Amino acid sequence: MAIAAKYSAKEIEDKWYDYWMKNNYFHSEVNEKEPYTIVIPPPNVTGVLHMGHMLNNTIQDVLIRRARLKGLNACWVPGTDHASIATEAKVVAKLKAEGIDKNKISRDEFLKHAWEWTDNYGGAILNQLKKLGASCDWDRTKFTLDDDMYESVIKSFIDLYNKGLIYRGYRMVNWDPEAKTTLSDEEVIHIEQQGKLYYINYQIENSDEFLTIATTRPETIFGDTAICINPNDERFSHLKGKNAIVPIVGRSIPIIEDEYVDLEFGTGCLKVTPAHDENDKVLGDKHNLKVIDIFNDDASLNENGLHYEGKDRFEVRKAFVNELEEKGFLVKTENHLNKIGTSERTKAVIEPKLSDQWFLKMKELAKPAIEAVLETEDIQLFPDKFKNTYSHWMNNIRDWNISRQLWWGQRIPAYYYGNDKNDFVVAENIEEALALAIEKTGDNSLTKENLKQDEDVLDTWFSSWLWPMSVFDGIRNPENKEFKYYYPTNDLVTGPDILFFWVARMIMAGYEYTDKKPFNNVYLTGLVRDKERRKMSKSLGNSPDALQLIEDFSADGVRVGLLLSNAAGNDLMFDEALCQQGKGFGNKIWNAFRLIKGWEVNEEIAQPDSAKIALEWYKNTFQKTLVEIEDHFSKYRISDALMATYKLIWDDFCSWLLEMIKPPYGKPIDKRTVDEVINLLEDNLKILHPFMPFLTEEIWQSITERTEKEALIISEWPAQTEFNKEYIKDFELVKEVISGIRTIRKDKNIAFKDAIELSVINNENLKKDYDAVISKLGNISEISYVNEQVSNALSYRVKSNEYFIPIGGAIDVEAEIEKLTEELKYNEGFLKSVDKKLSNERFVNNAPEKVVAIEKQKKADAQAKIEAIKESIQNLK
Fold first, then answer.
1. pLDDT of residue 851
2. DSSP assignment of 547-604, as one string?
3. Which residue, 60, 191, 227, 637, is the most exposed by fewest CB within 10 angstroms?
4. What's the confidence (pLDDT) of residue 528?
5. Per-residue DSSP letters for 234-253?
6. CA 183 → CA 114, 173, 547, distances in Å?
7. How far apart are CA 576 and CA 582, in angstroms?
8. What pLDDT score was predicted for residue 512?
């Protein structure tokens, strides 16, 4: 079979992915094997492949491919998330471009458009993952709005409601005015921004006196219903029981007292706006204050904003501040650094808003999840530094606002039958709801027409927290054989930014519904950043096109490039040069394979000693590295496992082994050596396959003709056997000897074609078995063992061994002695400076121990070098 001179990645990647798919290698069914299960963190249905997805899914594919090779029943479940806010925003924008206003069409019409959009554009990211080589079980692809998934979410809601864990409450929530929906606390990102602190005068009713209030949000003055002072603040004790007048608005509001007020902040007085600040709402409830909501859903002012009705909040802020200044109410303005809550999805500034919403009680649900991670460690986080952040969030958990004012998503299964907001029942469908409503009211005249389902949908995360269970139908049908076999899953690979949104909630749901953990291990990847440590984002324009990278550097090259620079939990500083390095690694292996296949094989000739020794060394080295790789995988050090594999193949196999066994130019090689090196190449391909699946399958299939049952993807991971540590240790010395010979040849311009002699003082008692390898790689005509230094020779040391190469007529002896004498003077001067530093008691006593140790090592190195140079000069005389 002819081997192509150049590796053509695109053609080969398409070929082997189609082959794997055609032969159903990715698919898993329940069988007698031990399962290994991963569920994909479902990307948004609106998404396209970005660098974070590339890293996350490469790691998952490495784990799943390795599990297959280990003989496990590997099942990687793919799927997408309906992403309520993001998808609805895209559909609304599309409709707007077509001249359609969402508010003027029915819910059913809108959902028809949303499904059309999803069918046309959604899920593209899954096809893009195939380009990366992701070996997901595509037959199991799930979407969070699939009928069975939808039904699972509704069943979960009803179950939790019936247990008293879900309730409807009038609470202060986070309102996203762009998406026009509430958000949970975890979806609010607090960003430090430079803002202003406005000092505004409020007149005391029936008095010429004024109170100065400091506020960062002057537009909320329209919703003020009190001023609060600290009862211990003597500056304002005379104002107890009085009222103040809201500037411009003219409303009379009470002056109340509460120790909540910070005497040091601002002016020591606080304006209270219960409708638009969580702490103000607490004060309002405590003091029975009036609640005045001033905002429309889009954060423009409503009728309570008086002459600013209909105008945007930030536009009003500017105009109202000008009006306050013109009318003498504004005292001064100061710069003020403030933390602003913004929407994680739309980036809009969040408005606190009072609203009737659905909440899930979290305290009890959190207890087993805290225990599993922080106490029993049934679930391991890698790296475990994230335990601290997990602990902080879980031990300070608040009730979860699970309702969203959207149409795209799982609609809340609550049905209202009366005029009071508490006149509702919770049921799976309208028929069940009617029966419950009749039972609850005793009114047999009720019909389905009297019932109205809640307009809101559930938070997207309320469906994805069930993901490891619902993908195997574990909520609707917990006794089914697939759920019992594949659950709990093994590993979860995700980003630390959704440790709370998703990971912690899945753990809570797992224990609530199955009394089992949903997974054994959580591998938290770092964020992908650019060379300047900036997070990659579309807005910065620093995120490369993931598919273009694959086009330029091959899928294998990109996978290697990503993993070489990534350690668990540490951010990845991405550089395209890393992908080039990955591509170069692939080319190195391809060329090594071409070299082996290009040798002429002669069955008659015997195996040389050099090849026999070299192959034995590599077998031991492979086994030693295999132990290291297994250890790295057990600790989820995926990049370290790749680096160990990389060094083994690049350095030990390609650079050393093939050099040691290759036949002289134009000569054949013995069959035994070729057979053994092919076996070792196949073992290399097995351990490299999880990282570089396409290249390895191509070489594997090119070595010899294989059946579908012999594909690399389903072959066996190499078995671990004992290895000889001494052999490996000896060979490190052998490699140094060879490197020494080559250095002298290069420095003295001794051509490699010229055979030279080598004399050895063998203080290390290195076995003579290795002489064949040294002779071959150094082109040594004879190796002799001596007891004393050889005169008129160049020398070098490896540990305590001394090696001598006779000069003959190869070099100018006088010039070499002159050069070595100069080198001796330099090193003696360097030693003198180090000695001076170490004889300084002040330095030795005050410098860090590590710094003193470095200086001592410098001294020892200089002394050894001086001794070696002196010997070399002596030998030349």
1. 84
2. HHHHHHH-HHHHHHHHHHT--TTSPEE--HHHHHHHHHHHHHHHHHHHHHHHSPEESS
3. 191
4. 84
5. GGGGGGTT-EEE-TTT--EE
6. 21, 7, 33
7. 10
8. 98
Q: CA nearest 724: which of 829, 823, 620?
A: 620
28 in Cβ contact with 75 (< 8 Å): yes
Four-residue CA torsion sign, 288, 293, 297, 300: negative
pLDDT at res. 328: 94
Q: Identify which of 599, 530, 653, 638 has the alpha carbon closest to the alpha carbon of residue 51.
A: 530
Contacts 24+ apart (CB under 8 A), 297-302: 297/175, 297/177, 297/180, 297/405, 298/177, 298/178, 298/180, 299/175, 299/177, 299/348, 299/351, 301/219, 301/222
- In the structure encoding, which two tokens stand for residue 650, read together? 């690049």
Architecture of the domain delimited by 144-165+364-402+457-525? 3-Layer(aba) Sandwich (3.40)
Q: For the chain, which residues score pLDDT lower than 50?
A: 809
User: 181-351 domain in CATH 3.40.50.150?
Assistant: no
Domain 569-727 matching CATH 2.60.120.10: the answer reads: no
Burial readout 3-35 (b: 16 or more C-beta within 10 A, e: otherwise): eeeebebeebbeebbeebeeeebbebeeeeeeb
Instruction: Report the distance separating Cα 435 and Cα 438, nearest Å.
Output: 5
In angstroms, rounded to a whole number, what is the distance separating the alpha carbons of residues 647 and 650? 5
Which residues have CB under 8 Å from 405's CB, separation 6+?
A: 180, 181, 182, 297, 455, 456
| Bridge partners, residue 336, by sequence | 195
pLDDT of 28: 98
708-728 pLDDT, tens per residue? 999 999 999 999 999 999 999
pTM reported for the whole predicted model: 0.86
Domain ranges in the chain are: 144-165+364-402+457-525, 181-351, 569-727, 747-876
